[in-house]
Amino acid sequence: FINLIERITYQQWHINITIVIQDSFKLQTIALIDSGAQMNCIQEGLIPTKFFEKPKQKLSTANGENLSVIFKIPNVHVCNNGICIKQTFILVKDLDIIILGQPFLEVIKPFKVKNEGIVTKIFQRKFLFPFNEKPITKEINLLKKTLSMFKEHSINLIKSKENHLYFMKQEISNQKLEQQLQTSQIQEKINSLKNNITNNLCSDLPDTFWHRKRHVVSLPYE
């Protein structure tokens, strides 16, 4: 499949927003639109504590880890290009950017995503939430090269493991053979063969070849 891809294009959905709470607090900042986020999230230190309320929701990240939710902030107006959308935010620790999640997208749908931003209609008026960054296109050749190197490395690793297993099998086989040679039955046979060789071949008067076939040879002289 990778061989059919020549390049990839990706884009982060960062937009400029103004947060307004009860007409007494305003904050211009940047938010990330994330369709995978269950709630709108905001980090500590941006909103005065007088707007906080105790939450009932429990949130988790994409990998299943629990997020530390401290407070929620209701009745927050998210403004962009002359339109304000009422939302509720969850105050989350260890967060480095404001996240506009599924509740925000539910309000503006149906919408279309273009290179310029998110286009939608609210009250029969067309609105554009422009993205701060342009799409980034990267050639896939580097990825192909990386995959090829990884494949070659994996093949070499598999071969080395196979060789290691072969040597281990040989060693185990030799150990089993040595163990079998140490059994009493094998030792008796070895000792019997050893004694037979000693008595018949290595004695002063060996008789091993005495009982072989005899031949009568006629000599040309008397």
Helical/strand content category = alpha+beta
Q: What is the CATH homology-level superfamily of the largest domain?
A: Acid Proteases
Give the termini separation. Answer: 98 Å
- Counting DSSP E segments of at least 2 residues, the number of strands comes to 11
Binned, the helix content reads: 25-40%
Instruction: Tell me the strand order in the biggest sheet.
Output: 4-6-5-2-3-7
Write down the overall geometry: elongated
Number of helices: 3
What is the CATH architecture descriptor of the largest domain?
Answer: Beta Barrel
Keywords: Hydrolase
Organism: Cephalotus follicularis
Domain Retropepsins: 15-108
Protein name: Retropepsins domain-containing protein
Fill in the keyword field for this structure:
3 helices, 29% helix, 222 residues, 6-stranded mixed β-sheet, 11 strands, Cathepsin D, subunit A, domain 1, alpha+beta
Structure description:
- This protein is α+β, with helices and mostly antiparallel strands and 222 residues long.
- It has two domains: 125 residues, Beta Barrel (Cathepsin D, subunit A, domain 1), CATH 2.40.70.10; 51 residues.
- It is built from three helices and eleven strands.
- It has a six-stranded mixed β-sheet.
- It is elongated.
- This is Retropepsins domain-containing protein.
- It holds the Pfam family RVP.
Topology, element by element:
Elements: E1 7-10, E2 14-21, E3 25-33, E4 40-43, E5 69-80, E6 83-92, E7 98-100, H1 102-108, E8 111-113, E9 117-122, E10 125-130, E11 136-139, H2 141-181, H3 184-200
Parallel strand pairs: 3-7, 4-6
Antiparallel strand pairs: 1-11, 2-3, 2-5, 5-6, 8-9, 9-10
